[in-house]
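Notes, p. 3: input format for complexes.
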Amino acid sequence: MDGPPIDDGAVAVVDDQIADVGRSDEVRTRQRGAVTDLGDVALLPGLINAHCHLDFTSLRGVIAPQRSFADWIRQINGLRRDLSEEDFLASIASGFAEAQRWGTTTIANIESMPALLQKMAPPPLRTWWFAELIDVRRTEPAEKMVEEALSFFQGKENWPGGFGVSPHAPYTASPELSRLAAVSAAQRDMLLTMHLAEAEEEMEMFRAGGGPLFDLLQSLGRSMDDCGRGKTPLAAMLDRQTIDERWIVVHLNELAEEDFARLAGGPRFHIAHCPRSSRYFQHRPFELRRLRDLGFNICLGTDSLASNSSLSLFSEMQAVREAHPWLSPQEILEIATVNGARALHQEQILGKIRVGAQADLIALPIENGRGDAYEKIIAWSDAVPWMLVAGCAKSCSRGR
Ligand SMILES: [Zn+2]
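Output follows (400 residues plus zinc ion):
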C-alpha cells in the first residue's frame, strides 16, 4: 500500500520494524539474516478493524434481527446482564483469536468493562482500547466516571496499541459526559470514538421527539430536552461540542441534506463504516461516495458479533464491493489498511509495508498471473495462514 505491488518481493524485519523492502535479489544483497521463503503469496499489511466490541463475541447469532433498533438494545442489555466477568474475558479472548484468523493485526475495541484490563495479559494483536462511557442512568458525577474509566489503563503503557475514550452515543452519553471525555482525551493525547447517526429511530428521536428509541430512553430516565427540536443527531452532537480529527465517528448512516451542508464546512473527523452490521439492522445505505468526496477519511469496522456473523474484514471489504461497485479493489483495500491507520493517527507506522513501519504483515496464497491482484485479495474467504504482529509470528511472545 506504499507503492505498486513488487514481483518476487522481500521484506527485511529487524525486531518489530520493517528494515528493508524491495525485490528479493536486491534486499538479499543489502540484508543479512535468516530467510523465510513464503512461496507464492501476496504479502500485505495486516488489516485494521476500526470499530469492534470484543466484549460481545459470545453473542454471535444470539439476537435475531429485530424490527426495531430499540428492541435490539433491550435484547443486548438483557443478555449482557447475565454475563459474568469470566464470560467477558472469554469473549474478548475468542474475539482476538477470530480477528487473527481473518488477518486483522490492529483493532479499535470499545471496552464496556475497562476494569477487566487489570485481569488480562497484553493482547495478542495491536489494540486500541476505548473505555465506553454511558450515563443514561447516572449514579456518579461525570468527572468521576471519566477518571475511573481511564484509571484502568494505568500500567498498560507498554501494551501494543493505545487507549482512548468512547462516549457511547449522543443518546446514551450526556453533553456533560461527552464534553468531559473530550477534555480528558485531549489532556492525555488520546483518541475518541462514538456511535453517531446510526439508526432511523435515532433520527426520529432527535428530530421529532418520538419513536421507539425515544420511548426506551425516556423510560430509563434520560433527560429528553435535546429531542423534538428538529435537529438531526449529527447537528445535536455538533452543537454540543467540536468533533475533530481526534474522533472516529462510527456509522453515520442517517444523514439529512442539511447535514451534508454542515459537514462540507466542518472539521474532518474519521468515519468508521460497518457494512455488514448496517445490513443486519437494515440501516439506510451508507453515503460513502459523498462523504469521501467531502474529504472524510473512511475506514472499516466489523462492529460486534451481536450484529454480525464474523470478525472478517475480508467479508466487510466484499460487502463494500457489492454496495459500491464503482470503488476500485485497491481503494477498498486502502479503507481496511491505510485509512484505518490514519484514523488511529498511525499512518507513518501502520497500514503500509515501508521502511520504518511496524512489521504487521499477512500473507495470502494467491497465485500471480491473470487478473487483478487487489481483486483477488479482497475476494479472499479462507483463514489467513501467516501473520506477523510487531515482527512476531503467532507462537512468538516477545513484547506481548
Ligand atoms: Zn458499535
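Residues 45-343 form a domain with the TIM Barrel fold (CATH 3.20.20.140).
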